[in-house]
From TrEMBL:
This is ABC transporter permease. Pfam families: BPD_transp_1. It is found in: Cell membrane; Membrane. Belongs to the binding-protein-dependent transport system permease family. The keyword Cell division does not apply. InterPro entries: ABC_transp_perm/SBD, MetI-like, MetI-like_sf. The keyword Transport applies. Keywords: Membrane, Transmembrane, Transmembrane helix, Transport. The chain crosses the membrane at residues 20-42, 54-76, 82-109, 177-202. Gene3D superfamilies: MetI-like. Residues 16-199 form the ABC transmembrane type-1 domain. SUPFAM superfamilies: MetI-like (SSF161098). It is a multi-pass membrane protein.
Length: 215
């Protein structure tokens, strides 16, 4: 195992960076999409139900099947991987964003409007900061989930550590097959832990102490 890692260290490091970069960028994009959608639907019970339904149904879809379906229109490579990861990443964030915004007391919003704040300014400066802890918890769940999905995306020749896993599985019993799978799996787990720690630190920096105490 150590010999395998030593001989391929540059390749492993580069694949790890690709994997981490794919997950981070897709999670950021998914967060923006989910929060925008949440701000559009959270005031309507009907639209909220639709958003929660889409999120619940989407999470039941097998990621492997989604990637397989996307290969037909999008081909192999980065594009189907990005679409798949963003899709699955957005679902928990959307659900948490809707819940976080809906749970803000109406009196707080009314007070902000009463002192002359516009609807948009109230949303940006009052509602979103108050909902951010719940949104961030959704982001953390999403990041852990799509870290594994990004590995599965290697089926469509996407970037990352999944290539080591599929390469090893395709030649089980052969030389270094188990080492290849182990490197991919352990690498994904370690990256997931690192990203979760970074998101935990982000929460410490972006959530005010008063809001942290309330949650």
């Amino acid at each position: 195992m150590f010999q395998y890692i030593g001989e391929r260290w540059d390749q492993i490091w580069f694949a790890s960076w690709q994997h981490f970069s794919l997950v981070v960028q897709c999670t950021v994009l998914a967060t923006v999409i989910a929060v925008v959608l949440a701000t559009l639907v959270y005031r309507s019970e009907r639209l909220t139900s639709v958003a929660n339904g889409v999120s619940a149904i989407g999470l039941t879809l097998p990621s492997f099947a989604v990637i397989g379906l996307l290969i037909v229109p999008l081909g192999f490579g980065v594009v189907p991987s990005v679409v798949t990861v963003v899709f699955f990443a957005a679902l928990p964030i959307l659900r948490n964003a809707v819940v976080g915004l809906a749970e803000i007391p109406p009196t707080v919003v009314e007070s902000a409007r009463g002192i002359g704040m516009s609807r948009f300014r109230t949303l940006v400066q009052v509602e979103l900061p108050m909902a951010w802890p719940i949104i961030l918890s959704g982001v953390r769940v999403s990041a852990q989930m799509v870290m594994g999905i990004a590995a599965i995306a290697a089926y469509a020749l996407g970037p990352g550590l999944g290539g080591f896993i599929f390469s090893g599985l395709s030649r089980l019993g052969g030389a270094n097959a188990l080492s290849s799978v182990t490197v991919g799996v352990v690498g994904v787990v370690l990256l997931a832990l690192v990203l979760d720690l970074l998101l935990l630190g982000l929460g410490r920096l972006t959530i005010s102490r008063g809001i942290r105490v309330q949650h």
